[in-house]
Amino acid sequence: MIGRLRGKVVEKEEGALVVEVCGVGYEVLVPTSLYSSCRPGEEVQIYTVYYQKEDDVGLYGFATLEEKRLFRALLKISGIGPKTALAVLSTLGAEGFLQALEKEDIKALSRVPGIGKKGASRIILEMRNALPSREQAVEGELLQALQALGFKRAEVEDVVREVGRQNLPLEEAVKEALRRLG
Predict the structure, then answer these.
(1) What is the domain partition of the chain in residue ranges?
(2) Does residue 87 register a pLDDT over 70?
(3) What CATH number does the domain located at 4-62 have?
């Protein structure tokens, strides 16, 4: 599947970007935060999820791996499709959504178009155990990043655990881990 795109934004259509990669224009549906931050002619890197079900096909894009992970987790909930999952991230953002889950804030989730109080309760109930803690997620991404840089798992596990507890954004966590390893 298509997991990531790096290319130039050539068009902006309502809720979607057309990203040209090697002469091919991919239409990518994105959250409003990403849509509003991109300009035509600008180089972008977008993490993507290809979705296909019966008569619905789409390529959905996100600025961060965490947004992509949350989108996929939302799709696993009964009654939540890609448009609703995208609306959650557009309305609340990844951080706001995670806070709503932690606080079990039905009111915040109910502000998302297409989600009522019942749907918000179901999301909270099903997502509570489905998502690893933020610390675990950062540790997993940090470990992958360090392994991609050539480190062996055994030599970085302690540093990953220590840095993961600091609750830093991934880029900062990678820098801190490299500083400790170097």
Answers:
(1) 4-62, 65-130, 134-181
(2) yes
(3) 2.40.50.140
Tokens at 114, concatenated: 């297409």
Q: Rounded CA gap, 61 and 77, in Å?
A: 19
Q: What is the pLDDT of residues 137-162, one digit of tens each?
A: 677 788 888 888 888 888 888 888 88
Instruction: Return the half-sphere exposure (C-beta side, CA atoms, 13 A cut-off) of residue 70.
Output: 29
Say whether domain 65-130 belongs to CATH 1.10.150.20: yes
Contact assessment for residue 89 and residue 71, using Cβ atoms and an 8 Å cutoff? yes
Residues 6 or more apart whose CB falls under 8 angstroms from that of 128 comprise 101
Contact 74, 56 (CB under 8 A): no
The CB-side HSE value for 158 (13 A sphere, CA atoms) comes to 3
Q: Where does the chain have alpha helices with state H? A: 32-37, 65-75, 82-103, 106-110, 117-130, 134-148, 153-164, 170-181
Lookup: tokens for 57: 């096909």
Q: pLDDT tens digits for 124-139?
A: 988 876 666 666 667 7
Cα(93)–Cα(57) distance, integer angstroms: 23
pLDDT for residue 130: 67
Q: Among 45-54, 60-69, 70-79, 153-162, which stretch is predicted with the lowest mean pLDDT? A: 153-162
